[in-house]
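Dihydropteroate synthase
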Amino acid sequence: MSVFACGRFSLSLERPLLMGILNVTPDSFSDGGSYNRLDAALAHAERLLADGADILDIGGESTRPGAPYVSPEEELQRVLPLLQRLAALQVPLSLDTRRTSVMRAALQAGAVDLINDVSALEDDGALALVAAANVGICLMHKQGNPDTMQQQPDYADVVQEVGGYLARRIELCLENGIARDRLLADPGFGFGKTLQHNLELLRALPQLEALAGAPLLVGMSRKSMLGAITGEPQPDQRLGASVAAALLAAQRGAKVIRVHDVKATHQALQVWQALG
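Structure:
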């Protein structure tokens, strides 16, 4: 049985796990401003769990294309009170951050089981910090930075380049004493990729998992790639497309699926799993 060592929890990967998104930001692309009050965030966390979330992913900095700068101090002020309130629940808590200082404060507070890093621990000191902690790690690929990454994405072979980058970051983690069962890899849909790049990666998920050498976490929920396919300009109008993308990812071997719409995705996966 494949198991992911996620902080306080050992999570079976025999079925795809659902990671519920909880952004405590004013400007995230889909739900910015909806849950940046503590009471609203706590209520939404409870709703995500009731709907079938296996992991809660807490983020305090929007990394959408063109997102404005947020200081590490402000990011920490957004996420730490919520993480501390949620720590009493028996649920794995993921911190979506690329800042070493934010990781350190959350780890010192004992309020995080998984570091979900869009920069794959490239920030100074992040690798050593996380290596010494008892947490899971998700390493994501991106081309460029959020303010410029969607201007001119370019690859000779997107599958080989993304898979090769993830393999190198995972190997570096292993060399620094991080056990393989603590690691997830994320191809980074929409992070410096065109629609065609994203579709190529989705088709090649089994190949990407083999290249990376770690289970894949996939996040396509409500993203602009789905809007480009369906013609829906508003993220919250992409429910059907998001559920379809999640199901396709699961069918192609994704072990963790990061979504906004947990209940609908959970139901779709239940129907698929019932087929055996």
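The chain has ten helices and ten strands.
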